[in-house]
């Protein structure tokens, strides 16, 4: 039996950075994101009689830490479905892997959705979100379309994402790609280092709780200006917490900062645009769909070397008819 699912990356507006439980991936903070309509990952899971799970990503066999993460999702699906067979997993990414473009979020959301279906587990979206979380925390949010909030929770049961309604202007996310290189420090390692060594981590956690509530209220009110301002605050505070780690973690490059500055200038010209960045130098700019072209024009006038991709709110993870694994 083969099941195939597709999922899209999401970009956090209120960031997740730091875990309180590394094994179950229970985050230190809740977070809120926008699922995009670009760079999907498609994953097929086939239940097999093999002696071990086999995982292939973009045509290459996966081993080590990454395949362990896949196995932790498969193990959870086996546990919940009461089955013991192994699986063959074949995944195709359309986003530059590990360049801070949330490829793991799409990958593990697609994996959870395909694996649950292949093993005959009838899981609702909340359960899929909890399963996807075992592979990568941010994947819990890519189960859902559009705006989603991941409630930090305190255990496996209570740590899941859920969709939030957005009645404000149609949203776009302009992705400014300044580098597609694999990052030097994985977000998992950087997160752990921040938790263990940064004197700013406690302040990050405390301030995130307040910010998440403010942002959730602004989402409910359809208030893009407040959501956007809080988006920039969350990103910069997250990066500040990493700057304080030993040794420091710095994902933002000179080009990233130039993009943040340009976004600020666009705002003073009356364009509603707000910058954010994750575990890499690429910058994502939240804006109104009807102003996305102006945002691209404004950014590329100052930073012509970057590649610009305009994304909109995208669909949640779902089963598709795929070619067999
Ligand atoms: C900066 O979800 O990739 O993108 O749970 O260790 O797999 P793991 O981390 P991951 O971290 C994402 C961090 C972030 C912010 C965010 O997406 O909220």
TrEMBL record:
One of its GO terms (molecular function) is diphosphomevalonate decarboxylase activity. The gene is mvaD. Its EC number is 4.1.1.33. Residues 7-161 form the Diphosphomevalonate decarboxylase-like N-terminal domain. The lineage of its organism: Bacteria, Bacillati, Actinomycetota, Actinomycetes, Micrococcales. It is an enzyme of class 4 (lyase). It comes from the Bacteria. Belongs to the diphosphomevalonate decarboxylase family. Residues 173-307 form the Mvd1 C-terminal domain. Keywords: ATP-binding, Lipid biosynthesis, Lipid metabolism, Lyase, Nucleotide-binding. This is diphosphomevalonate decarboxylase. It comes from Paramicrobacterium chengjingii.
């Amino acid at each position: 039996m083969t099941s195939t699912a597709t999922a899209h990356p999401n970009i956090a507006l209120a960031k997740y950075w730091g875990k309180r439980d590394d094994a179950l991936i229970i985050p230190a903070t809740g977070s809120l994101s926008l699922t995009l309509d670009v760079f999907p990952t498609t994953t097929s899971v086939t239940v097999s009689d093999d002696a071990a799970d086999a995982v292939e990503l973009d045509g290459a066999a996966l081993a080590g830490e990454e395949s362990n993460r896949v196995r932790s999702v498969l193990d959870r699906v086996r546990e919940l479905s009461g089955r013991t067979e192994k699986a063959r997993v074949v995944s195709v990414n359309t986003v530059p892997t590990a360049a801070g473009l949330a490829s793991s979020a799409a990958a593990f959301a697609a994996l959870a959705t395909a694996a649950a279906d292949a093993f005959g587990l009838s899981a609702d979206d909340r359960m899929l979100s909890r399963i996807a979380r075992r592979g990568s925390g941010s994947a819990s949010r890519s189960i859902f379309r559009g705006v989603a909030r991941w409630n930090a929770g305190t255990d496996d049961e209570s740590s899941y994402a859920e969709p939030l309604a957005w009645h404000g202007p149609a949203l776009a996310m302009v992705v400014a790609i300044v580098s597609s290189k694999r990052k030097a420090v994985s977000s998992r390692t950087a997160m752990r280092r921040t938790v263990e060594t940064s004197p700013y981590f406690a302040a990050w956690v405390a301030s995130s709780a307040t910010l998440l509530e403010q942002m959730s209220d602004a989402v409910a009110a359809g208030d893009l200006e407040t959501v956007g301002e809080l988006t920039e605050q969350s990103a910069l505070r997250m990066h500040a917490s990493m700057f304080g780690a030993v040794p420091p973690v710095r994902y933002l490059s000179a080009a990233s900062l130039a993009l943040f500055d340009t976004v600020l200038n666009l705002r003073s010209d009356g364009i509603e645009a707000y910058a954010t960045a994750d575990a890499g130098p690429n910058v994502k700019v939240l804006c109104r769909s009807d102003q996305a072209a102006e945002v691209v024009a404004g950014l590329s006038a100052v930073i012509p070397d970057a590649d610009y991709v305009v994304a909109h709110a995208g669909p949640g993870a779902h089963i598709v008819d795929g070619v067999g694994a």
